[in-house]
Design goal:
By secondary structure, the protein is an alpha/beta fold. The protein is built from twelve helices and 13 strands. Strand 9 and strand 10 form a beta hairpin.
Length: about 325
């Protein structure tokens, strides 16, 4: 069995190294880690390479601790004989969440030995048995294609960010993480969570090879947000979703893109892609819900005006009127 762990890095080598330190303490054998760098300008790949050269655990896992490729080399499978535990890929540009993950998935698929792909945010730290718990849940569930972890807050490890995934309301174009604001450990029925789950949260998402072969790679038209939900809907119910409660992942939440539930703290990047993709996704899958989604986005615009974020309000107005490229 072969698991590929995929991290996308963008100007966040410190977070990525901390994440790698935890991943390489995992108790599941037979995994490899692929880091795709989305055009970082802080020397991320060189920093991560330096860390890899000095890491004794990596050196003990293979003849060479790491391999490094350009995007075109990686997507064709790299060097056939290469079996480094860590693969670094220079994507050459910022391809977004889906684009960066897809480069790694193409590498793994070209190698021909992929069984599971664990898409993991680089601003996370994982428990040693987190990967094994997800593989076990997918294998025991039978027919599941995607599995989520228990996401806990990095700074407050007893606070839940999400129990596996989220619930999506098409009429509002909004999603809520299951178990959000709850405490961990908690007595929660796994079946009930899985029944309510619309999608697994992409901060820690494991996909089976069967799912990827049947559904294809992630849609790169989003850049950020909605990619997981799009993936699920494209599967058209052919695969169930599951949750591995004991797979614990500690998430710094929005370290790279400035996500926040507080409108005053949201970054411009977060505001733009959230508004743009709520419309794009709704138009693609639930066009009957466009009127209410537009109405709520108008409310978002008003909120930005009340906060004195004039340029942000103007940006959302351009999105609403289809003039975001101006």
């Amino acid at each position: 069995m072969s698991v590929y762990v995929v991290l996308v890095n963008y100007n966040g080598w410190r977070d990525t190294v901390e994440c790698l330190e935890s991943v390489f303490r995992s108790d599941l054998p037979g995994f490899r880690v692929v880091v795709c760098d989305n055009g970082s300008r802080d020397g991320s790949l060189d920093r991560i390479e330096s860390w890899a050269r000095e890491n004794a655990r990596l050196s003990a896992m293979g003849k060479t601790p790491f391999a490094r490729y350009r995007r075109s080399e990686a997507e064709s499978g790299g060097i056939h004989e290469e079996s480094a535990p860590l693969v670094l890929i220079d994507c050459g540009d910022n391809l977004g969440f889906a684009g960066g993950n897809n480069v790694a998935l193409r590498y793994a698929l070209s190698r021909g030995d992929l069984d599971y792909a664990w898409l993991l945010n680089n601003d996370t730290v994982v428990a040693p048995d987190a990967m094994r718990r997800m593989v076990h849940r997918l294998e025991e569930s039978g027919g599941s294609g995607l599995c989520g972890s228990t996401l806990l807050h990095y700074e407050a490890s007893d606070r839940v960010q999400a129990l596996g995934g989220g619930w999506y309301c098409k009429w509002l174009g909004l999603a809520w993480h299951l178990g959000r604001l709850g405490r961990w450990p908690a007595r929660v029925e796994r079946g009930r969570v899985e029944h309510r789950m619309s999608y697994p949260v992409g901060a820690s998402l494991m996909a089976s090879r069967d799912f990827i072969d049947a559904v294809g790679l992630m849609c790169e038209e989003y850049f950020l947000f909605f990619e997981e939900l799009d993936w699920v809907l494209r599967a058209k119910g052919a695969f169930a979703l599951c949750w591995a409660p004991e797979s614990l992942v500690y998430h710094k939440v929005g370290a790279s893109i400035g996500t926040s539930s507080n409108p005053a703290r949201k970054s411009a990047v977060c505001d733009y892609w959230n508004a743009r993709n709520r419309i794009f996704f709704t138009r693609r899958f639930f066009p009957e819900a466009l009127p209410t989604v537009y109405l709520l986005l108008f409310g978002t615009l008003v909120t930005r005006l009340l906060l004195g974020r004039w340029s942000r309000a103007a940006m959302i107005a351009r999105v609403l009127t289809g003039r975001e490229g101006e």
